[in-house]
Design brief:
This protein is 21% helix and 41% strand. The chain has 180 residues and is α+β, with helices and mostly antiparallel strands. The strands form 3 sheets. A 6-stranded antiparallel β-sheet has the order 1-2-3-8-5-6, with no helix packed on it. A 5-stranded antiparallel β-sheet has the order 7-4-11-12-13, covered by helices on one side.
């Protein structure tokens, strides 16, 4: 076997082993989903890490997204790639946002052991649902894990949206966070 073929074989084996270890440890792709959001690829070594797909079947809705630690990043592709980085942002169903712990003011990654992301689903001025995501530092300390703690759409048995107040939704979110 030629030296070039030998290098290709060894490199291929290493790639398979590294991918196998990553998948075996469960650190590369962590997918969780429900009616409102999906979590994808929670690893800093992924090309596009920490994705949160905002989804809901009614495209008239919007998501109010907030996070207590770290930042959401929303990417735009117009004539050139652009992004919005914030602790609070508005997004539409079908959009993907990312969470990360890079602070642009400090120009460094900040330590985040635990963070909570909140999502309020609105139709006009009415809150029709919410979700809470818990973000924790992984065992390897270079990746983050995310878990959907609670997700709910406020519908009655006829499929109509219930009337709920901002205070009621805030109390539900705080209760979920205090239990986790």
């Amino acid at each position: 076997m030629s030296k070039k073929k030998w290098i290709i074989v060894v490199a291929s084996i290493l790639v398979v082993v590294v991918i196998g270890i990553g998948v075996g440890l469960g650190i590369w792709i962590r997918e969780k989903k429900n009616e409102i959001i999906e979590l994808h690829t929670w690893s800093l070594i992924a090309a596009s890490p920490n994705q949160i797909l905002l989804k809901y079947s009614d495209e008239r809705t919007i998501f109010e997204c907030s996070v207590d630690k770290g930042y959401f990043v929303k990417l735009y592709y117009t004539t050139k790639p652009m992004s919005e980085r914030a602790k609070y942002l508005i997004a539409k169903p079908g959009e993907t946002i990312h969470w990360d712990n890079y602070d642009e003011v400090l120009k460094k990654f900040i330590d985040v052991d635990l963070a909570y992301a909140e999502f309020r689903l609105r139709l006009g001025d009415k809150i029709i649902g919410y979700a809470v995501v818990k973000i924790t530092l992984g065992d390897l300390r270079d990746e983050y894990n995310a878990e959907i703690l609670k997700s709910e759409v406020f519908k009655n048995w006829l499929g109509q949206y219930k009337d709920v107040t901002e205070e009621y939704v805030t109390s539900l979110i705080e209760q979920v966070k205090s239990e986790n």
